[in-house]
Protein backbone atom coordinates (compact mmCIF):
# COMPACT_ATOMS: atom_id res chain seq x y z
CA UNK A 1 0.00 0.00 0.00
CA UNK A 2 1.76 3.20 -1.12
CA UNK A 3 1.33 6.10 1.29
CA UNK A 4 2.29 9.66 0.41
CA UNK A 5 2.60 12.09 3.34
CA UNK A 6 2.93 15.74 2.36
CA UNK A 7 3.62 18.59 4.78
CA UNK A 8 3.79 22.26 3.87
CA UNK A 9 4.11 25.57 5.65
CA UNK A 10 1.39 26.94 3.35
CA UNK A 11 -2.04 27.38 4.92
CA UNK A 12 -4.66 25.10 3.39
CA UNK A 13 -7.49 27.53 4.14
CA UNK A 14 -9.29 28.12 0.86
CA UNK A 15 -7.20 25.49 -0.97
CA UNK A 16 -8.97 22.75 -2.88
CA UNK A 17 -7.33 19.88 -1.00
CA UNK A 18 -9.57 17.37 -2.79
CA UNK A 19 -7.82 18.22 -6.05
CA UNK A 20 -4.41 17.72 -4.45
CA UNK A 21 -5.47 14.39 -2.94
CA UNK A 22 -7.02 13.03 -6.13
CA UNK A 23 -4.20 14.15 -8.44
CA UNK A 24 -1.49 12.87 -6.12
CA UNK A 25 -3.30 9.55 -5.59
CA UNK A 26 -3.76 8.99 -9.33
CA UNK A 27 -0.13 9.95 -10.06
CA UNK A 28 1.31 7.64 -7.41
CA UNK A 29 -0.82 4.71 -8.57
CA UNK A 30 0.00 5.21 -12.24
CA UNK A 31 3.75 5.73 -11.79
CA UNK A 32 4.29 2.94 -9.25
CA UNK A 33 1.95 0.61 -11.13
CA UNK A 34 -0.31 -0.27 -8.20
CA UNK A 35 -4.10 0.01 -8.02
CA UNK A 36 -5.25 3.41 -6.81
CA UNK A 37 -7.54 1.60 -4.34
CA UNK A 38 -4.40 0.87 -2.28
CA UNK A 39 -2.90 4.38 -2.38
CA UNK A 40 -3.17 6.71 0.64
CA UNK A 41 -2.36 10.42 0.51
CA UNK A 42 -2.14 12.71 3.55
CA UNK A 43 -1.70 16.49 3.27
CA UNK A 44 -0.87 18.68 6.27
CA UNK A 45 -0.75 22.45 6.02
CA UNK A 46 0.52 25.27 8.24
CA UNK A 47 3.39 23.08 9.43
CA UNK A 48 6.34 25.18 10.66
CA UNK A 49 9.04 24.61 8.01
CA UNK A 50 12.24 26.55 7.42
CA UNK A 51 14.19 25.72 4.29
CA UNK A 52 17.36 27.50 3.20
CA UNK A 53 17.09 29.79 6.21
CA UNK A 54 13.67 31.16 5.27
CA UNK A 55 10.05 30.31 5.97
CA UNK A 56 8.94 31.04 2.41
CA UNK A 57 6.52 28.45 0.95
CA UNK A 58 8.10 25.00 1.15
CA UNK A 59 6.98 21.38 1.30
CA UNK A 60 8.34 18.03 2.41
CA UNK A 61 7.02 14.62 1.48
CA UNK A 62 7.59 10.98 2.30
CA UNK A 63 6.43 8.16 0.09
CA UNK A 64 6.33 4.65 1.51
CA UNK A 65 5.70 1.67 -0.74
CA UNK A 66 6.15 -2.06 -0.50
CA UNK A 67 8.05 -2.50 -3.74
CA UNK A 68 7.52 -0.56 -6.95
CA UNK A 69 10.23 2.03 -6.26
CA UNK A 70 13.40 2.47 -8.28
CA UNK A 71 15.62 5.33 -9.31
CA UNK A 72 13.58 5.91 -12.49
CA UNK A 73 10.24 5.63 -10.70
CA UNK A 74 11.43 7.99 -7.95
CA UNK A 75 12.40 10.63 -10.52
CA UNK A 76 8.97 10.41 -12.14
CA UNK A 77 7.21 10.57 -8.78
CA UNK A 78 9.31 13.56 -7.69
CA UNK A 79 8.47 15.45 -10.86
CA UNK A 80 4.75 14.61 -10.72
CA UNK A 81 4.28 15.50 -7.05
CA UNK A 82 6.40 18.66 -7.43
CA UNK A 83 4.13 19.77 -10.29
CA UNK A 84 1.03 19.26 -8.16
CA UNK A 85 2.54 21.11 -5.17
CA UNK A 86 3.67 23.96 -7.41
CA UNK A 87 0.32 24.29 -9.21
CA UNK A 88 -1.98 23.87 -6.21
CA UNK A 89 0.05 25.44 -3.39
CA UNK A 90 2.49 27.76 -5.21
CA UNK A 91 5.47 25.99 -3.65
CA UNK A 92 8.44 26.26 -6.04
CA UNK A 93 10.06 22.97 -7.05
CA UNK A 94 13.32 24.21 -5.57
CA UNK A 95 11.66 24.28 -2.12
CA UNK A 96 10.27 20.74 -2.11
CA UNK A 97 11.89 17.46 -1.00
CA UNK A 98 10.47 13.98 -1.37
CA UNK A 99 11.93 11.10 0.62
CA UNK A 100 11.29 7.49 -0.43
CA UNK A 101 10.95 4.41 1.75
CA UNK A 102 10.99 1.10 -0.10
CA UNK A 103 9.44 -1.21 2.48
CA UNK A 104 10.27 -4.88 2.15
CA UNK A 105 8.16 -7.51 3.88
CA UNK A 106 10.54 -9.62 5.97
CA UNK A 107 8.92 -12.97 5.29
CA UNK A 108 5.67 -14.86 4.79
CA UNK A 109 5.30 -15.68 8.50
CA UNK A 110 5.61 -11.99 9.47
CA UNK A 111 3.63 -10.03 6.87
CA UNK A 112 3.51 -6.83 8.93
CA UNK A 113 7.23 -6.55 9.65
CA UNK A 114 8.96 -4.27 7.17
CA UNK A 115 12.40 -2.83 6.70
CA UNK A 116 12.62 0.58 5.12
CA UNK A 117 15.80 1.64 3.36
CA UNK A 118 15.42 5.27 2.37
CA UNK A 119 16.02 7.22 -0.79
CA UNK A 120 16.07 11.01 -0.64
CA UNK A 121 15.42 12.96 -3.80
CA UNK A 122 15.51 16.74 -3.81
CA UNK A 123 13.53 18.38 -6.58
CA UNK A 124 15.22 21.32 -8.27
CA UNK A 125 13.87 24.01 -10.61
CA UNK A 126 15.59 22.70 -13.71
CA UNK A 127 14.24 19.18 -13.32
CA UNK A 128 17.55 17.48 -12.50
CA UNK A 129 17.92 15.30 -9.46
CA UNK A 130 21.10 15.65 -7.44
CA UNK A 131 22.47 14.12 -4.27
CA UNK A 132 24.08 16.19 -1.56
CA UNK A 133 27.51 15.63 -3.10
CA UNK A 134 26.36 16.75 -6.55
CA UNK A 135 26.00 13.28 -8.04
CA UNK A 136 22.97 12.75 -10.25
CA UNK A 137 20.31 10.17 -9.53
TrEMBL record:
<dbReference type="GO" id="GO:0005615">
    <property type="term" value="C:extracellular space"/>
</dbReference>
<dbReference type="InterPro" id="IPR014347">
    <property type="entry name" value="Tautomerase/MIF_sf"/>
</dbReference>
<protein>
    <recommendedName>
        <fullName>Macrophage migration inhibitory factor family protein</fullName>
    </recommendedName>
</protein>
<comment type="similarity">
    <text>Belongs to the MIF family.</text>
</comment>
<dbReference type="GO" id="GO:0050178">
    <property type="term" value="F:phenylpyruvate tautomerase activity"/>
</dbReference>
<dbReference type="InterPro" id="IPR001398">
    <property type="entry name" value="Macrophage_inhib_fac"/>
</dbReference>
<dbReference type="Pfam" id="PF01187">
    <property type="entry name" value="MIF"/>
</dbReference>
